[in-house]
Amino acid sequence: MGKAWSTDDENQLIRMLAEGASSDTCATEFKRSIGGIRSRQYELAYRFVEDGKTLSEACQIMKVNEEMLAKSIRSRTASKEARLNKKKDTSTQITTIVNNVQPNTELSLLVEIRDLLKLLVASNPSTPSPVTHASASEARRSVHVE
User: Fold this and answer.
1) Separation between Cα atoms, residue 25 and residue 19, nearest integer Å
2) CB hemisphere CA count around 67 (13 angstroms)
3) So where are the chain's domains?
4) In 3-state terms, what secondary structure has residue 98?
5) FRET pair for 130, CA 20 to 30 Å: which of 51, 52, 62, 105?
């Protein structure tokens, strides 16, 4: 992954393209790869469409292929819908588990909490896995306080 784009860099890229600069020229100016420039062109075109520009207008401004931008937009839309559906499914499962907890049963409650935690971790892959009791004990033993 390359260097992050600042708003100023993005605005300069838009200006350079409007003045007729090629992707090669922009790559040299920004000290980035041609692929990095092309990727940012499509990202900015996508944002223009989100902000109300037509597909054609966005492609003209950012000098990108209309068919490829349309394909990218369809792909992003499908990904967003899949993430939303997964969240809805997880929410439904959590609600079902919570509604089925038996009152006055500590073990049952602990099992249900464990199942909820598993669902939450599974629905968010970026969440670190919980530390097991054994590995936590080993970590405490390896730390020596003097």
Assistant:
1) 12
2) 0
3) 7-64, 81-142
4) helix
5) 105
Give how far Cα 84 sits from Cα of 46, 80, 105, 124, 127, Å: 20, 6, 34, 12, 18
* pLDDT attached to residue 77: 86
Closest CA to 29 of 39, 19, 16, 42: 16
CATH of domain 7-64: 1.10.10
Query: Which long-range contacts link 15-18 to residues 24+ away (Cβ below 8 Å)?
Result: 17/41, 17/61, 17/62, 17/63, 18/61
Kindly give the parts of the chain with pLDDT less than 50.
130-146
How far apart (Å, rounded) are the C-alpha atoms in residues 123 and 118? 9
Contacts of 14 (CB under 8 A, 6+ apart): 44, 61, 62
| Predicted local distance difference test score (pLDDT) of residue 55 | 92
- According to the model, what pLDDT value does residue 53 have? 95
Q: What is the residue type of 53? A: K
Number of C-beta neighbours around residue 23 at 10 A: 20
